[in-house]
Amino acid sequence: MKKEIRIIILLFLISMLLSACTFNAQKTSETEEEPYEDKYEVIDNGPVKGGAVKLFTTPIDTLNPILTNNRYVQDFLGLIFEGLYKLDTTGQPVPVLAKSSVLSEDGLTMTVYLKDDIKWHDDMSLKPEDVVFTINTIMDSKNGSVYIENVRNISSVSAGEQNSVVIRLKQPYSFIKNELTFPIIPMHRFINEKISDKKSKVNLLPIGTGPYSFGSYDTESSLKLRQNENWWNSSGGGDSNDTSSAVISTPYISTVEIKILSNLNAANNAFQTRDIDVLPADYNEFRKYIGRTDITLKRYTGKNYEFLSLNLKRGPLSDKRVRNALNILINKKQLIDTAASGIAVAAEIPVMPSSWIYQLKDFEQGNDFKKAQELLSQSGYVFDSDKNAYLKKTTKKPLELKLIVNDDNSLRYNAAKEVASQLSKKGIAVEISKIPWADVSKTMKNGNYDMALMGYRLSSIPDLSFAYSADGISSGLNVAGYSNPNVDNLLKSILSENNSEEQKASFIKLLDIITEDRPYIGLYFLNESVMYGKSIRGAINPYIWDKYNDISKWYLP
After folding, report:
1. For 243-278, what is the HEC assignment?
2. What's the pLDDT tens digit per position in 22-53?
3. Are strands 429-435 and 400-406 parallel, antiparallel or unpaired?
4. What CATH number does the domain located at 1-48+210-294+534-557 have?
5. How many Å apart are CA 480 and CA 465, to the nearest integer?
6. Residues ≥6 apart with Cβ < 8 Å to 370
7. Protein fold of 301-528
8. Which of 83, 135, 174 lies closest to 546, judged by CA?
9. Residue 329 confidence (pLDDT)
């Protein structure tokens, strides 16, 4: 029997080694790998306490959440620290440490009331002074906080009555709660300490209010967190219909170990060999794992938005009817399936489709070729079926477009080829110009193009000014050079309007105008993912604003 066990273990190890070699050899392959057979059945009888889960980070710069520049450190410090608010899956801010808020009539003062009886991990009470200290620390530019943009519209902050924080704004700002999602740190820990020293003792011994508290830290190998048995947000688990089972409080998992790895490649290898249990991955990484049965793979919409920027000043696309016709003729689903391996989400505007804003308008238009033909006819083009081409009625010149794309992005180039293929089949010839990224902006400035395939990486603030306002032109983010005074006024109104219904009405008007003017043709958001070892069960629901969402409800059966 022992001999058989040794043989089974040996065969398993060999298979793991071979699979790791296959993964490395097919690093750039876009095809799905052969499914991995899961050798183990995990019997799941519901939530249980205990066990350890292994995450990863790249080298740690500090354990102060408002000073770190490492996104992996930011992610796991979210288990220790909490903010006043967090964004839900629709992009709406929901209270965490905050209980409620009141805004003054002039929109310049917001009073945030804190939840009562919240304790730091050292058993000290959370106080308004902690929030004041955190905001002032971020506002001090000498500290170099990554959250300094979050507080750019705050003029001052002070502790108020009844466990409240009084925040005074430079101007009315409707998205202030979206900004107040940064971690709150304890003032009492930093008395007589130089907070800007990232490697100071106090900055390497984090004390928060979250579901996990600091355990130990080996600078060469790993950091360990332990469950916070006194977490203010702890809740009972288990089957509510099973009266025989005891109520189990969250978090379920006792220990979280964060392995310190050199880079993302090392993390991929560690996940392959099960040295870590969880691996967040972007589009380029997680598609290699599709089809594997020995892991749980959860996709979500990422921040990277791809679109066509159109030449509004000269050529055929200076006519918005032609721009809208192109939008109809491009089949976004087919584009995603062909160019992005099917792992993206179509989007008409630079707003995530799951957002409450995107839901304000029905963007579904289908591929209404008759409507596209009608728009092209109105703009002076007629379809010649013999030539399978749209010709200018007056000159008989074919409708031809130049599409530029940067030469160092294979995904974008594949998308450009698919766009060209689709339009050529509909009678519109497209020439692709593949040029260095440094030349893309030059080409757009001199106007020697019709379309440019580009991308935005979006922030958590649903302010579309960057892409559609006149101010966005000077910043360089409004790459189409689009300008409409009505749009500028609506964008300003949205930023300052604190009545939610009136803000929604302004958003609807804005969406109607920009989809009619069509300075850009939206294509898609690329998916990202988090992958988990099969042993992890429970509420596994990552999304872009919280990769470790609901980790307190994970368990190991």
Report:
1. CCCCCCECCCCCEEEEEECCCHHHHHHHHHCCCCCE
2. 223 222 333 333 334 455 566 788 899 999 99
3. parallel
4. 3.40.190
5. 13
6. none
7. Dipeptide-binding Protein; domain 3 (3.10.105)
8. 83
9. 97
